[in-house]
Amino acid sequence: MDIARLIKAEERRQANTISLIASENYAPSVIRAAVGSVLMNKYSEGYPGKRYYGGNEVVDKIEQAAQAAARKLFGAEHANVQPYSGTPANLAVYNALLDIDDTVMGMSLAHGGHLSHGHKVSFSSKAYKFVQYGVDPKTGLLDYGEIRKLARIFKPKLIVCGATAYPRAIDFKKFAVIAREVEAYVLADISHIAGLIAAGLHQNPTKYCDVVTTTTHKTLRGPRGAIILCKKELAAKIDKAVFPGIQGGPHNNITAAKAICLQNATTVAFKQYARQIIKNAKALAAALEAEGIKVCSGGTDTHLILVDLSPLKITGQEAETALEKVGIVVNKNMIPGDIRSPLDPSGLRLGVPAATTRGMREAEMRKLAGLINQVVRQPKSKVVLERVKKEIGKLCKKFLIK
Ligand code: DSN
């Protein structure tokens, strides 16, 4: 297989479709250049000034710049910028703070949590005893009273907060108060909303939580990777748990790209971008509801929307497939209380960071809502699919990926 041709094919696929996958974004060319740079040739096991290989004088400066940018952006005392991605970052935190079989609380996948927050198929639940909390089935909102009750019963050593498919603001301070009451550590996984926090649009958990993890490629619009932020007193434990605990040499090309992304996130342009993400998500949610499509929790405070398809005659998988045919790329998703399987659940997760990067605004969100509505109501109509596909083609030509 000619991989260069396949890369070109993927470039065309991205250009000719609209990604509404909440965890995806289009990294700017400066980030992609860093990822493809000579930095990938270098081995640097260890940390700046304490490496197991020679020749790291440049890499040390890059890693220190990334650490400084991460500390500054989130107001953190310490930053580890080596985690390969979100799951390894979370596993490193568990490795740092827990003993095998310790009790931990995390949000259930079916209610919006992440696999690494204790789902049964994840290594996290094999190594630790996870107690899973969820949202109030009536409101779709986190029920802090219930979380406190569970914490008092199970006395976890760590409470994980943060989500992958929860459309509402999370009160990290409340989580921290509950954790203190039961003498637990608290970890905030802000992977999805890090860009919104960086722009000051969401509560920043750094001052309340012992540890914060985030990926750098979602709303932060950087390279695939993650960082860990923590209080000074946990710094040595966290660093040791990342390397040599669960990782080998850092990916220096990615570290450089993380530094650029974290520096970019302090700019006025990035703040405007983050504000537009929220405006777009709210516009999309409102327009979907106006079309009669059920939006879990009745709206969004973030970049994502959870659609409940159960009142319609279509499953999450069927909707994902039909939408892909017209060039709208989404992912099927469980909704709170879902009785269907994760392989064909009752919902869709829609996110706007990528479309917002392309320059789309509220008017395009309303347009997209109308098009999505047509597809999910008539997924088998060739006429509808053809018509919508043409409209998506026009939007893609107007809003290019730069
Ligand atoms: N897979 C990511 C997401 O889509 O939310 C999280 O790891």
Automatic annotation (TrEMBL):
GO cellular component, one term: cytosol
GO molecular function: glycine hydroxymethyltransferase activity; methyltransferase activity; pyridoxal phosphate binding
Annotated positions binding (6S)-5,6,7,8-tetrahydrofolate: L109, G113, H114, L115
Serine hydroxymethyltransferase-like domain span: 2-372
Residues with N6-(pyridoxal phosphate)lysine modification: K218
Location(s) in or outside the cell: Cytoplasm
Pfam families: SHMT
Pathway annotation from the record: One-carbon metabolism; tetrahydrofolate interconversion; Amino-acid biosynthesis; glycine biosynthesis; glycine from L-serine: step 1/1
Catalysed reaction equations from the record: (6R)-5,10-methylene-5,6,7,8-tetrahydrofolate + glycine + H2O = (6S)-5,6,7,8-tetrahydrofolate + L-serine
EC number assigned by the record: 2.1.2.1
Cofactor(s) required, per the database record: pyridoxal 5'-phosphate
This protein's UniProt keywords: Amino-acid biosynthesis, Cytoplasm, Methyltransferase, One-carbon metabolism, Pyridoxal phosphate, Transferase
Gene Ontology BP annotations: glycine biosynthetic process from serine; methylation; tetrahydrofolate interconversion
InterPro entries: PyrdxlP-dep_Trfase, PyrdxlP-dep_Trfase_major, PyrdxlP-dep_Trfase_small, Ser_HO-MeTrfase, Ser_HO-MeTrfase-like, Ser_HO-MeTrfase_PLP_BS, SHMT-like_dom
EC category name: transferase
Site (Plays an important role in substrate specificity): H217
HAMAP family: SHMT
Subunit structure: Homodimer.
Biological role stated in the UniProt entry: Catalyzes the reversible interconversion of serine and glycine with tetrahydrofolate (THF) serving as the one-carbon carrier. This reaction serves as the major source of one-carbon groups required for the biosynthesis of purines, thymidylate, methionine, and other important biomolecules. Also exhibits THF-independent aldolase activity toward beta-hydroxyamino acids, producing glycine and aldehydes, via a retro-aldol mechanism.
Similarity section: Belongs to the SHMT family.
Protein's UniProt name: Serine hydroxymethyltransferase
Protein species of origin: candidate division Kazan bacterium RBG_13_50_9
The organism's taxonomic lineage, starting at the top: Bacteria, Bacteria division Kazan-3B-28
